[in-house]
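Repro:
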Amino acid sequence: MKKWFKGFMAVTLASVVLAGCGSNATGGQADGKDGSADGKKKLVISTWGFSEDFFNKEVYEPFEKEHNVDIVVEIGNNAERLNKISQGSTDVDLIYLSDYYAQQGIQQGLFEKLDRSKVPNLNQIYDIAKAPLGEEYGPAYTVGRLGIAYNPELVKKDVTSWADLWGPEFKGNVTLPNITATAGPMMVDAASKVAGSKEFNEDQAFGKLKELSPNIVKFYSKTSEFVNMFSQQEIAGGPIMEMYFKDLQAAVPGAKFVAPSEGAYAVMNTINVVKGSDQKELAEEFINWQLSKEVQEKSAKAKVDSPVNTQVVLSGADTEGITYGTDVVNKLTKLDMKFVNDHIKAWTDRWNREVAQ
């Protein structure tokens, strides 16, 4: 029996548990907005809960020392953190969000306009990352890709296309991300391409998805669900973000990841200054730090984030499991997130009625 999850939740770089209180980089409680107990300036950052030790040591602490500032971190998923800003119930200065949720924040007027002259490292990053949601707003500090992972023991052909998911090799053993997941709208777009439409066609897309529906074991909302099904050979494969492929390989060493010929999809996480912040210039300096070669290289080698800084040079094992290189990044397909946000409610309703039944 197929299972699905209705209602919005974020599936971004990791499945995170919402923490109830903000904390600084060393785990202490947040102080008042005007500054820390030691009199230093304070920068409040809203982000996810993954790789906290790495961010504390390699990103936050060096910035704190250089700028004589205390960083306070509020942890949670995209939807919860964006909602807190929308309600005005937080003192956040800087927020990390997936591009899908950042677009919602822009449409609600929740972000300051970025002074790009204060962020010179923008000149060193991929074009796709410089202004994914417009010149007035923050960059993507990491760009991943959504492709297809599969078990060659169960799929007796080389998978090269999104269309292969509709082939007989995946009959009754494929998974797709739910429409409410980060990658859900990307599969609506991919289905339109598989249907043969040069321009996006919603009816054709949902027709192809309905056609594939009987072969879906489960519509996953968390990457851990994909990994579990894959390791137990309940599925032969499906669309997944490249950064999680290492987890599949740990379970199935012979697993393969491919960027479909029609194009893998760009998965971008952004960083923006929150409207009304009294630390705008400091926040912009932090964005510049996040984009620096130093931070980007450390993040890539630690397999925390794929780099967007073109000055980062990697080789061998350091390139595995991340989206790296100009040739790779330039081939990615980027969705128009304003278009997605304008249509997601209708798509979700249609998905639940026509596809996930």
